[in-house]
Specification:
The protein has 447 residues and is of the alpha/beta class. The protein has helices at 7-13, 30-33, 36-47, 51-67, 76-83, 101-114, 126-131, 136-150, 167-172, 174-190, 211-232, 255-268, 304-316, 335-340, 350-358, 364-378, 388-395, 404-408, 412-432, 439-445; strands at residues 18-21, 24-27, 70-73, 92-96, 121-125, 154-164, 195-199, 240-244, 278-281, 322-324, 345-348. The protein has 20 helices and eleven strands. It has an eight-stranded parallel beta barrel with strand order 4-5-6-7-8-9-10-11, surrounded by seven helices.
Amino acid sequence: MEEFKSVGAIYDSLKGAAREKGGAVEVVDEKALRGAPIDSLVFNAVFSRNKEVLNESRRLIKYLASALGTRPASIHGLYMAMGRGEVGGFTVPAVNIRGLTYDTARAFFRSARKNNAGAFIFEIAKSEIGYTDQRPAEYAACLLAAAIKEGFRGPVFIQGDHFQVNAKKFAQDKNAEIGDLKKLIKEAIEGDFYNIDIDASTVVDLSKSEVAEQQRPNFETTAALTRYIRENEPNGITVSVGGEIGEVGGKNSTEEELRAFMDGYLGALPKGMKGISKISIQTGTSHGGVVLPDGTIAKVKVDFDTIERLSKAARQYGMAGVVQHGASTLPDDAFHIFVARGAAEVHLATGFQNMVYDSPAFPQDLKKEINRHLVDKHSDERKPADTEEQFIYKTRKKGFGPFKERIWTLEEERRKKIGAELEARFDLYFTQLNAKDTAQYVKKYVG
C-alpha cells in the first residue's frame, strides 16, 4: 500500500470520492471511497512516518465516518436501560483485536450488518496497547475505517479494557500510579474511547478481616478515576465506566464483595455524579485459557450460578449486570448460558488471536519467524515447567506488535480467507449471545 509523502497526496487519493467543503468533509461517492481510498487512508493512519500525514489521515477517517452516519459513542444509555429492566435478553460481545486489526474489524462489521446487530464493543486493554503497538487514536481510526469499508451505519462503541492498577507500583507510590492511569484515560478519551473499564481489583487488601475494608482501596481508586473521567468526558457524552471486584484468574467473586464495593464506591462519589454501568467479576476463567503441555486449552468450569446471583445484585444498583472476562476459549455451547444467567457483557480476545495465527491461510514461514522472535526476546518469561508449546502459546500475543506491518500487508487472498473464518465466528457469537437485532435498542437508547 502507498505511503503518502504529504497531506496534499492524501487529498489527491480522495479525488472523486470525498472532498473538503466549507470546513467540513463531504463524501462525493461512497462506493468509490470504500475502494482503494479508504484502504490507503487507514494504512497511513497506522504506518505513516510523516506525523502530519498520520494525524490528517486519522482526522479524515473520523470526519468521513461521521459524514456517513457512523460515530464513536458510549453504551451507557443502553446499559442504564438494561439496569432498569426496559431491555434485555442478550449479552453484549466485547472484542479485543490484537492484530490484523482492520481486516478483523471489517469481518466483525460484516457480521453485525448481516445480523442487524448494534450492541457490541471493540476494546483494547492497557497491556495490549503496549505489546500490540496500538495507541487509542490508531485503534479507533482502524475501527472507523473498517466501518466505512463495510458500509456500517450507527454508533461504534470503543472501550479501554482493563485500565488496571499495578499493585506493586500502587504500594510504592499510590499517587504516581493513579496519575499514570489518568494520563492513559485522557489519551483514550481524546482518541474517541467513550467506554472505559477501570480495574482496581488488583489492590483489594485480603489481609483485612472485613470485606468492606478489603474492597476499600478498590472502590476508592475506582471512584477517584470515575471522577476524573467525568471531568474530562466531552460535552453531551456520558462515558460508560465499568468497575471490577475480582481479578481474573483469582478466587470467584461473592455477592458480599459486590455489595461492599458498590456501597463504598457510591459513598465515595460526589452526590449526583453518574457511576459505573457494569461490574466485572471472577467466575473461574482466566485470560487466554489454561494451556496444557501439548499447547491445547484445558476445559474450564464457569460458575454460572455466581453470574446469575451477582447480575441480579448489580441490577439492584441500577447497573446492566456483570461482565465475564476471559471467555473466548470456552466451548461454543457455553455462550448461550451467559444470556440465560443475565451476564451483561462478555469479553473475547485470545480466541480471535488463535484463529489468525492458526488459520491455514496464515503463512507458516511467518509463523515460524514470529515463534523464533518470541524465543529470542521473551525466554525470560518462560516458567521452568513450561513446554515449548506452552511458552509459545502464552507469549504469541507479543508477536503482533513487532510484526504488525508484516501481518497487515499479507497477500489479499490470505487476508480474505482469514476474514471469512473470523466472520463465521462472529456470526456464532451473535447467535449464541442472542445479540442479533439489537440495532433497534441502540437506536432507542443511544441514538
